[in-house]
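User: For documentation purposes, I need each entry recorded in a consistent format: the amino acid sequence on its own, followed directly by the corresponding structure tokens. There are two entries in this batch. Please keep commentary to a minimum and don't merge the entries.

Assistant: Recorded as requested. Entry 1:
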Amino acid sequence: MINIIFSGGGSGGHFYPLIAVARELKEQNKDIKIYFTAPKNPDKGALKKEGIIFKSIVSGKLRRYFSFKNFISPFLILTGFAQSIILFNKVSPKAVFLKGGYGALPTGLAALVLRVPIFIHESDSVPGLMNKIFHKFSKVSFVAFREAFPVSSRVKVVGNPVRDMSSKLTRDGAKKELGIATDKPIIFVSGGSQGAGEINELIFNLIGDLKDEFFTLHIIGKSKMEEYEKRLEEKGTIDDYKIYPYLYEKQLKAAYRAADLLVFRAGAGMIFEAARNAKPSILIPLMSSAGEHQLRNAYSYSASGAGLIMEEPNKNIHTFLALLRKTIGDKNKLKAMSEAAQKFAKPDSAKEIASTLNEYLI
């Protein structure tokens, strides 16, 4: 049995691409056993389903601002490093695959000390701190955007591994699945499972205008659901507007199939999911994201013709509404954006990464 350790931590953006790669890797080589290290188990169900063994390794964030937690972080990192050394000695991994995030630091440091080959993947156009560190030592650095690292023999542009959200449903079938009984254009708005305050407020403040022209599907976030349900009750019944805390996979596939236009943040996961589903989109980047990576992701994607960018739309919601109306009213524009998204997509991203890892492992 060949052992490999995957590591990454901080958000689902670090975790779910690893799951996609793990699935492909095990399909290509049945003799591989995969361990996943992180401070917390982000999804027990997903790991169990894929037969991945979770090992809790503590870590501390390297904050680039003052915080009293900065005094604790070094001790957490040292503890995690010791835990990683013990794990490496126990399972003797042939390679380590790092996805970035603070949770990957102890595992990466242990790999360096014990001279275990390192592979990394960077989802954003601006590399995170962990990947900047380990890129210097990696056998191969996989990137979603070619701007992430200077092109070299050690850098492979593979896109971002995402879930296959394609559906066998017809558009009418998808609408029926979601309980949509209108012929209005459908807008699918997502701030992710945690919601996005800026996007939530934007759509909520415009819903009086949107409901007359569009049907809006809105993922509001689990933590925000109760608040917005109460606010909706105060507004009274609003037709052609549905809010969800999140969508299960079956619903999500139907939402992508039914939607005419997507509105979302500019995280790599959503960008590549939109591209894989060939959907036109309006991107609202989080301006405070580290290294302005969401803004740069958005401009990289927009340059392909697949998406439009709206910066800080709450400062002028009517400009956003005008952009929405103009875009969704131009069928030729929507078609061209859809075709551009399809060209931008890299549906074999996980397979490409797994193939490279497998070549090394065997």
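Entry 2:
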Amino acid sequence: MDVRVETHSGYKADEYPKRFWIGDSALDVVEVEDRWYSPGCSYFRVFAGDAARYLLRRDEKSGGWTACRV
């Protein structure tokens, strides 16, 4: 599903997600549990404020984000 993501930008843009919206629901990222990179995409497994884990994926070319609950 497509989502809107608010990120922290430190030494690089969109370094890690801080908050994301699924529909009208805003979820705070409590913890980034894991992150990895592949050609063209960044992945983040996060623990969110609703006590669920999500996999967030950022497409480097389009800048778009997707999410799925894991």
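Summary note for entry 2:
The beta strands are 2-8, 16-22, 25-38, 41-48, 53-59, 65-69.
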